[in-house]
Amino acid sequence: MKTIPPNAPLGLVVHSMPDQQRMAVAAPVAGGRWKLLVIVALCSLPLLASLWAYFVVRPEGRAGVGELITPVRELPHQSGLTLEGAASPLSALKGQWLLVHVDGGACPDVCQQRLFLQRQLRETLGKDKDRVDWVWLLNDQAPVAASMRTPLADATVLRVDPATLAQWLPLPAGTRYADYLFVVDPLGNAMMRLPAHFDGAGAAKAKRDLNRLLRSSVSWDTPGR
Q1: How many folded domains does the chain comprise?
Q2: Against a cut of 0.85, is the pTM above it?
Q3: Residue 202 to residue 204: CA distance in whole angstroms
Q4: Is residue 223 part of a domain?
């Protein structure tokens, strides 16, 4: 190894000096990127929380009294008919949570009782009821009694082809549409079946199921279309 004499002068070589202007610009840019990342993360929290509550909180895919439809069924592109016979695209139902009952137009007393329970279940949601529409879909050509028009003033009533209903609202083997209320999300996806008839305890559980869904979507779903 070469040794340097004690009295030898030291030689210094300066390759470059820090560029003060570049340092001054680099610091704010780096800080701005971190701030942007923090803002994006904060804005994403509600959506992430909603997805977590919707997909994770439900243990083993089970609900209180509701039966989850997996996979969800997308809203068909077909149209239905109003009671006046006018065509109405099913896509017009999007933008709200839907509580759907399917039955024939004759609607005997037991059918009317189920429609009443459907309406009452929606009313129990309080301020959140404006985020839920109650819908009666007719699966036959039977006329609806004139006496039912007034009680159904707040409902959406459409006559829909049975094949379209089977595509959108699936039934377990051996059951009838009259046995269920279907829950449809604001995107038009059928995702849960509730029993169409229940006692007080069952009504409380059904309400709890609906409240859970509404809470999980509150960050991105608002009343009205």
Answers
A1: 2
A2: no
A3: 5
A4: no
